[in-house]
Amino acid sequence: MSYLYPLVALVGALGVLNLAFTFGVVRRLREHTDLLSQRNRAQGSGPKVMLDVGETVEAFDAVTVDGTALSQADLATGATLVGVFAYGCSSCDERLPAFLELARSFPGGKDQVFAVVVGDSENVAGKRDKLTPVARVVTEEYGGAVTAALGVKGYPAFALLNSDGAVTAAGTLVEDLNLMPAKAA
Q1: pTM, whole model, 2 decimals?
Q2: Are 147 and 62 in contact (CB under 8 A)?
Q3: Per-residue pLDDT tens over the stretch 102-133
Q4: Among 76, 65, 84, residue whose Cα is nearest residue 144
Q5: Cβ–Cβ under 8 Å, residues 132 and 66
Q6: What is the 3-state secondary structure (H, E, C) of the chain?
Q7: Are 169 and 178 in contact (CB under 8 A)?
Q8: Is the peptide bond before 156 cis (omega within 30 degrees of 0)?
Q9: Residue 91 burial by CB count (10 A; 0-12/13-18/19+): exposed, middle or buried?
Q10: β-strands 157-161, 167-171: how paired?
Q11: Is pLDDT at 44 greater than 90 in this prediction?
């Protein structure tokens, strides 16, 4: 019976040591996950949701929700922030506030921010109303001319265009956009 107390103490000590190692492993896994995410974003290895860097937006004609005509040439007037959102897209809903915040502070204001909301007009009213104060907004059905011109393959899609209308950064996160070239342009 005298050996039972040291045995219980040894098992308890091993349990505490195992718990400490487990916490250490979890912490390292989180650090590695963050490092890999940063590396993937830096290398642009995320999913391709629209035109690649260097490609130019194709010609299109559209009308904004406030009745202004808009074409590919209107996007080539300086650095332009582009956001494409869809109805029923939970990721779009999650990332809309970050886009709105960036759009509010984007150089050139509303004239240099372009948003496309995809879906029928009744269903996209909420997103459209949030975007209208900070961007030129076009609504269209799936497979419309604007999303085709931007090469959109997934939602949400964000891009920065230079003064030639070429993509300088693109991705599914606002953080994917390298804003230094846009502010300098």
Answers
A1: 0.72
A2: no
A3: 999 999 889 999 999 999 888 888 999 999 99
A4: 84
A5: yes
A6: CCCHHHHHHHHHHHHHHHHHHHHHHHHHHHHHHHHHHHHHHHHCCCCCCCCCCCCECCCCEEECCCCCEEEHHHHCCCCEEEEEEECCCHHHHHHHHHHHHHHHHCCCHHHHEEEEEECCCCCCHHHHHHHCCCCEEEEECCCCHHHHHHCCCCCCEEEEECCCCEEEEEECCHHHCCCHHHHHC
A7: yes
A8: yes
A9: middle
A10: antiparallel
A11: no
Distance CA 111, CA 33 (A): 38
Task: Return all residues near 50 (Cβ < 8 A) that are at least 6 apart.
Answer: 84, 150, 151, 152, 153, 157, 159, 167, 170
